[in-house]
Design brief:
Mean pLDDT: 78
Number of strands: 0
Number of domains: 1
InterPro entries: Phopholipid_MeTrfase (IPR007318)
Shape: globular
Low-confidence stretches: 193-197
Pfam family, one: PEMT
Keywords: Membrane, Transmembrane, Transmembrane helix
Order of helices and strands: HHHHHH
Radius of gyration: 24 Å
Membrane topology: Multi-pass membrane protein
CATH class: Mainly Alpha
Strand content: under 5%
GO cellular component, one term: endomembrane system
Distance between the termini: 62 Å
Number of helices: 6
Helix content: over 70%
Length: 197
């Protein structure tokens, strides 16, 4: 009896109201999904920044320095204790840039091209932040090999990835809007500062 009454009440509800309720439920679920994805992205980012980048970079430097040092006759330069100050400067700026960019992408769909905030200085603020952090780690290790060879090699590989893979995809997705944005804002290093919003 109760089930029949409930079923009858549902049948008497106008279809547009039922559709509105369904759309509202879907919107809430989509928002919850985006929030969960944002939290997962932040957790992965913290792991990459706090674990993978420092320890992977240090391992690469420690492994390659003896070999490259013998070939180039220069490996370390002694700037202790200023290396901690310089490292903190680069690392904190890089980390701030990454999380500043993340705050702009959080909860925003990919249907609109981001051109505000850090994206008005560089088209890839997260990548720029990573490069700054790697420079800081090289200074902390007081390794010329890390600063002048390993970090530039990583930056060049990342630049090629952006230029050859990401940029064509963005041009295909956003068309003339991206071309205008690309002409005003540099790809990685925030050298030109003409584009503002």
């Amino acid at each position: 009896m109760g089930r029949r009454l409930f079923k009858g009440a549902a049948e008497r509800t106008p279809s547009h109201i039922r559709k509105g309720r369904m759309n509202s439920w879907r919107h809430e679920n989509a928002h919850a999904h985006l929030t969960l994805m944002g939290a997962a992205e932040k957790a992965v980012l913290v792991y990459i920044v706090a674990v993978l980048i420092p320890f992977g970079y240090i391992a690469a430097v420690e492994y390659s320095t003896p070999i490259l040092g013998q070939a180039l006759t220069w490996t370390y330069f002694n700037i202790f204790p200023w290396n901690f100050v310089i490292f903190s400067f680069f690392f904190l700026i890089g980390l701030s840039m990454i999380f500043w960019a993340l705050s702009y992408t959080q909860g925003r769909g990919a249907e609109r091209l981001l051109t505000e905030g850090p994206y008005s200085y560089t088209r890839n603020p997260k990548g720029f932040g990573y490069v700054l952090m790697l420079i800081g780690l090289g200074v902390l290790l007081q390794s010329a090999v890390a600063i002048f060879m390993i970090t530039p090699a990583i930056a060049i590989m990342y630049f090629l990835y952006l230029k050859l893979l990401q940029e064509p995809f963005m041009r295909h997705r956003y068309g003339a809007i991206y071309d205008e944005y690309r002409a005003s804002v540099p790809l990685l290093l925030p050298i030109r500062l003409a584009y503002r919003k």
